[in-house]
Amino acid sequence: MELFVLFSILITLAALFSYINVTLLKLPSGISLMLMGSVAALGVIALGHISQSFTEIVQQKLELIDFSEFLLGILLSFLLFAGSLHVNLDDLKQSAKSITSFAVLGTILSTFIVGYSFHYLMDLFGHPLPLLLCLLLGALISPTDPIAVMGILKKANLSKKIETNIVGESLFNDGIGVVIFATLLKIESVGVANFGVWEISLLFVQEAIGGITLGVGIGFLGYKLMKSIDHFQTEILISLAMVMGGYSLCHYLHVSGPLAMVVAGIMTGNRGTALAMSDETRDYLGKFWEVTDEILNAILFMLIGLEIVVVDFETSYIITGLITAVIVITARLIALYCTAFTFGFARKMGNGTLKIMTWGGLRGGISIALALSLPPSSHKNIIVSVTFVVVLFSILVQGFTIAPLIKKLNSKGISEQ
């Protein structure tokens, strides 16, 4: 019952803040909910100076939700499937080379740049951390969060090419980032000496290729079942089964669930809607997943904002987090440019596109969830706190300023390349 009451409060707050946003602020929903959730958390902390018991009660209620398990084990499957439903396959094919390159090579490069930079930063501050732990931070913070990206860029005036690259890359580099994180975590648990190049390659292929392959199978099965009937209620249930049953199967087969959901969603949103659904089903299914996406995003962004109450924000952690945020943006810029020049599409994409992709590469709940999933250690607290600061900076600072950047580049005719 306590869990139900907690979710009731979250939904009520999300509804209230969404109403305020629609009527007054008119910000992208992700920014507004994160902003007001953060303000609410700061209000709780302020009240805590008056009544310590009040803060403790709020912390106890929030701790009823295992944020990492809630996002990675439940929300992520729904959000990735819902987001990928709207990705146009033809547009994706045209940008396949750049999206794949950025998602794989770009994420790997960024992981190592951030990891080594953070390692040297902590040495400079007199708080040395193991290199492998720093690389884990690089892996969890390098992928752009598709949930944050799609929510905040939804109203941005972007050219179709740039939008496809940003959204497509964020959908796939999310899965790649989780695979890199899982690989590094495995190395840390068994030791570098017991986990060589062959084992790393095998785990990476199993997770990534396995997830994509299973996603194709889930999407094809769903397509066949939907094509054989014309009953929108049942077809919506089939789409739910694809997400919940498919994601659970990925967990038991030890393959990438995020990549599987992205592939299954793209297949359903393209081949499924075009060839397997009536106009009525297409309309109902689209609206169902749109509403589901909005509700779950509202819960997620509210939780991220309110989780500030339970995170240890020492002054040194905040300073370290802000410096790390700059490192993360710089690492993304370097990774994007290196990848673009390596594969020969830097000139075609143009500097404007790469600048927007750099600043529009937002981090979100997935990074926080991965940080919280780290095994207990004396260093975990600083990793979680730094991750929170980077995510808050990403959504509140980059999210607020991406629209003016796009407008400025559009006025110069740069982002239309």
TrEMBL record:
<dbReference type="InterPro" id="IPR006153">
    <property type="entry name" value="Cation/H_exchanger_TM"/>
</dbReference>
<feature type="transmembrane region" description="Helical">
    <location>
        <begin position="356"/>
        <end position="376"/>
    </location>
</feature>
<keyword id="KW-0813">Transport</keyword>
<keyword id="KW-0472">Membrane</keyword>
<dbReference type="InterPro" id="IPR018422">
    <property type="entry name" value="Cation/H_exchanger_CPA1"/>
</dbReference>
<feature type="transmembrane region" description="Helical">
    <location>
        <begin position="31"/>
        <end position="50"/>
    </location>
</feature>
<feature type="domain" description="Cation/H+ exchanger transmembrane">
    <location>
        <begin position="13"/>
        <end position="408"/>
    </location>
</feature>
<dbReference type="GO" id="GO:0015385">
    <property type="term" value="F:sodium:proton antiporter activity"/>
</dbReference>
<feature type="transmembrane region" description="Helical">
    <location>
        <begin position="6"/>
        <end position="24"/>
    </location>
</feature>
<comment type="similarity">
    <text>Belongs to the monovalent cation:proton antiporter 1 (CPA1) transporter (TC 2.A.36) family.</text>
</comment>
<dbReference type="GO" id="GO:0051453">
    <property type="term" value="P:regulation of intracellular pH"/>
</dbReference>
<feature type="transmembrane region" description="Helical">
    <location>
        <begin position="99"/>
        <end position="118"/>
    </location>
</feature>
<feature type="transmembrane region" description="Helical">
    <location>
        <begin position="235"/>
        <end position="254"/>
    </location>
</feature>
<keyword id="KW-0050">Antiport</keyword>
<protein>
    <submittedName>
        <fullName>Sodium:proton antiporter</fullName>
    </submittedName>
</protein>
<keyword id="KW-0915">Sodium</keyword>
<dbReference type="GO" id="GO:0015386">
    <property type="term" value="F:potassium:proton antiporter activity"/>
</dbReference>
<feature type="transmembrane region" description="Helical">
    <location>
        <begin position="382"/>
        <end position="406"/>
    </location>
</feature>
<feature type="transmembrane region" description="Helical">
    <location>
        <begin position="203"/>
        <end position="223"/>
    </location>
</feature>
<keyword id="KW-0739">Sodium transport</keyword>
<feature type="transmembrane region" description="Helical">
    <location>
        <begin position="130"/>
        <end position="153"/>
    </location>
</feature>
<dbReference type="GO" id="GO:0005886">
    <property type="term" value="C:plasma membrane"/>
</dbReference>
<dbReference type="Pfam" id="PF00999">
    <property type="entry name" value="Na_H_Exchanger"/>
</dbReference>
<keyword id="KW-0406">Ion transport</keyword>
<dbReference type="GO" id="GO:0098719">
    <property type="term" value="P:sodium ion import across plasma membrane"/>
</dbReference>
<feature type="transmembrane region" description="Helical">
    <location>
        <begin position="291"/>
        <end position="311"/>
    </location>
</feature>
<feature type="transmembrane region" description="Helical">
    <location>
        <begin position="174"/>
        <end position="197"/>
    </location>
</feature>
<feature type="transmembrane region" description="Helical">
    <location>
        <begin position="70"/>
        <end position="87"/>
    </location>
</feature>
<keyword id="KW-1003">Cell membrane</keyword>
<keyword id="KW-0812">Transmembrane</keyword>
<feature type="transmembrane region" description="Helical">
    <location>
        <begin position="317"/>
        <end position="344"/>
    </location>
</feature>
<keyword id="KW-1133">Transmembrane helix</keyword>
